[in-house]
Amino acid sequence: DAGVIQSPRHEVTEMGQEVTLRCKPISGHDYLFWYRQTMMRGLELLIYFNNNVPIDDSGMPEDRFSAKMPNASFSTLKIQPSEPRDSAVYFCASSSGTSGRGQFFGPGTRLTVL
Amino acid sequence: AQSVTQPDIHITVSEGASLELRCNYSYGATPYLFWYVQSPGQGLQLLLKYFSGDTLVQGIKGFEAEFKRSQSSFNLRKPSVHWSDAAEYFCAVAYSSASKIIFGSGTRLSIRP
Fold first, then answer.
1. pLDDT tens digits, residue range B19-30?
2. For residue B2, what pLDDT is reported?
3. Cβ separation A56–B44 shorter than 8 A
4. Could you say which architecture CATH assigns to the domain B4-112?
5. Taking the domains of chain B in order of start, what are their residue ranges?
6. For residue A22, what pLDDT is reported?
7. Nearest to A99 among B43, B99, B106 (CB)
8. Measured in Å, how far apart are chain A's first and last C-alpha atoms?
């Protein structure tokens, strides 16, 4: 299995630009999670989906952030407009059935907003 | 509120020495408990998990963890660390089979040659 795939691995953009991060979960997994990791705040859950439906988006910092999961094999996290404080590593994770089986993480996207 | 605490921010041990990383969680029925490791520039990798049965669980890379309900703890151990074990370690908990996982703040492990 290829594991969770994220693209791009690195993204450098200027303040005000739109950023789209992409994730392909492990085939057969029905939960998908987006996290943000920074030195100051650690690992934060932004949003998660079950069977392509958003379940909890309470961690999304503000309206500039949006996430979609149009099908079982693809999800996007969009930031529009981006700000320097959005600079972080963004992880996608997926799991099968329940969180009790553990989540499997992608390699992350390192976002730098200048 | 549900939470998980890793009291040690940074630990340094000598190569070949034993290791114990501490983790405490807020009380909840039937917790699902996890340890993850994150090497620099990498995503999180699941080391081991516990949700029932034997309270001593074995994981990958020679790690083990022991669930102690009376102490609300799930400490990670390794009898002899290797330089490649230098990484960030996260304890995590879930309180129902369908809930999200709550991560601790992490413990950074350094290995002294």
1. 999 999 986 667
2. 74
3. no
4. Sandwich (2.60)
5. 4-112
6. 98
7. B99
8. 36
